[in-house]
């Protein structure tokens, strides 16, 4: 279907990037996301079916969305993930298709996902130390994650992006080692500020490591040149070209261009004014901001027989009312009612 309308909000921002959560379930129990015992998962009857996911994705593509990222929870737990990717790849115009995953199980699925039409992958790797990984995720799966990252690269997914959340008193000191590893392996690393999205509502700014602190630590080993938020300024990560430092020579020898590291500083350097993202939860709720406390129900109207035009109107109205920013620094800020695992990354 042709993109014949534009999703634009009252601040002039155009939404072209859609994150679709396929499940709220996860194979890890990361301390900054959920409690050790896990959460009460959404009832299966409330989750979108594959047909509903594809139908709603088609409506968004018809509204001008050009990029779809599949998230969770952990999207690799969705048994028909490859089939969904294949169906989304049939759209015309075809959106860029990517996946955000913890990497557990990726080693067995990377080739099939590429064959289905997946273009890119982001994998969470917060540490390279097995004991620390166990403490952070409450699961002994680091070897599986690293094998999955390597399998993604071998399958042709490029660039393989690595997401790392740094926390004080935990893995902050490992930032240079993570960057050295990523450069030597040919992966693109992005550090992410710890955000108030945990199910426990226990986020503590004192534990969060800021972009400024990350840059100061990296600057002891690396020479970095700021190069901005992507070609159009809307990318969430602020990129820094690596002019010198451990691993850079290996990157250059492998024929890669412009080695870089990114920092997603949602808390201390918010990029709300250039945000082009929307989120569709696994139970069919449209969220115009990661930190929103309001949602627009698309599942109910879809199951009631709403037409494409009616669904488009619901989406258009929701986007038009998108808030100006998340307001984390304000005294009135409240965490979203849903945790990150139920929103989608």
Overview of this protein structure:
With 345 residues, the chain is of the alpha/beta class. It has a single domain, classed as TIM Barrel (Alpha-Beta Barrel), CATH 3.20.20. The protein is 29% helix and 17% strand. It has helices spanning 50-62, 81-88, 106-116, 130-137, 142-154, 175-185, 211-218, 248-253, 299-303, 308-320, 340-343; strands at 17-21, 67-71, 96-101, 120-124, 160-165, 188-192, 223-228, 238-244, 260-264, 277-280, 285-287, 296-297. It has a twelve-stranded mixed β-sheet with strand order 7-8-9-6-5-4-3-2-1-10-11-12. A hairpin with a 4-residue loop joins strand 10 (277-280) and strand 11. The model has no long low-confidence stretch (mean pLDDT 90).
What would a concise description of this structure say?
It is built from eleven helices and twelve strands.
From the structure above, extract its key features:
345 residues, alpha/beta, TIM Barrel, 12-stranded mixed sheet, 12 strands, globular
Q: What order do the helices and strands follow?
A: EHEHEHEHHEHEHEEHEEEEHHH
N-C termini distance = 26 Å
The coarse silhouette is globular
CATH homologous superfamily descriptor: Aldolase class I
Q: Major sheet: order of its strands?
A: 7-8-9-6-5-4-3-2-1-10-11-12
Structural class determined from secondary elements: alpha/beta
Q: Could you please say which CATH topology applies here?
A: TIM Barrel
Major β-sheet, in short?
Answer: 12 strands, mixed
Low-confidence regions: none
CATH top level is: Alpha Beta
Task: Supply the CATH architecture.
Answer: Alpha-Beta Barrel
How many individual domains?
Answer: 1
Radius of gyration: 19 Å
Strand portion: 15-25%
Q: How many E-type strands?
A: 12
Mean pLDDT: 90
């Amino acid at each position: 279907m042709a993109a014949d309308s534009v999703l634009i909000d009252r601040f002039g921002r155009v939404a072209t990037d859609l994150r679709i959560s396929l499940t709220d379930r996860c194979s890890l129990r990361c301390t900054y996301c959920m409690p050790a015992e896990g959460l009460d998962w959404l009832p299966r009857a409330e989750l979108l079916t594959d047909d509903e996911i594809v139908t709603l994705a088609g409506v968004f593509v018809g509204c001008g969305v050009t990029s779809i990222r599949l998230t969770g929870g952990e999207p690799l737990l969705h048994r028909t993930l490859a089939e969904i990717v294949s169906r989304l790849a049939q759209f015309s115009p075809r959106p860029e298709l990517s996946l955000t995953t913890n990497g557990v199980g990726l080693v067995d699925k990377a080739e099939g996902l590429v064959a289905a039409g997946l273009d890119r992958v982001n994998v969470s790797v917060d540490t390279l130390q097995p004991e620390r990984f166990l403490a952070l995720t409450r699961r002994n799966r680091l070897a599986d994650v690293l094998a999955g990252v390597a399998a993604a690269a071998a399958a042709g997914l490029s660039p393989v992006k690595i997401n790392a959340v740094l926390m004080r008193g935990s893995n902050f000191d490992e930032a240079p080692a993570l960057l050295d590893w990523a450069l030597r392996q040919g992966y693109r690393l992005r550090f992410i500020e710890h955000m108030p999205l945990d199910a426990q509502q226990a986020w503590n700014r004192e534990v969060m490591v800021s972009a400024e602190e990350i840059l100061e630590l990296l600057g002891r080993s690396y020479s970095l040149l700021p190069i901005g938020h992507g070609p159009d300024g809307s990318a969430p990560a602020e990129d820094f070209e690596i002019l010198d430092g451990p691993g850079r020579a290996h990157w250059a020898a492998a024929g890669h261009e412009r080695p870089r590291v990114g920092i997603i500083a949602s808390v201390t350097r918010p990029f709300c004014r250039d945000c082009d993202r929307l989120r569709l939860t696994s139970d069919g709720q449209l969220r115009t901001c990661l930190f929103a406390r309001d949602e627009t129900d698309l599942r109910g109207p879809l199951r009631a027989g709403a037409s494409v035009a009616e669904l488009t109107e619901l989406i258009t109205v929701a986007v038009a009312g998108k808030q100006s920013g998340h307001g984390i620094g304000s005294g009135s800020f409240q965490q979203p009612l849903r945790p990150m695992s139920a929103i989608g990354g």
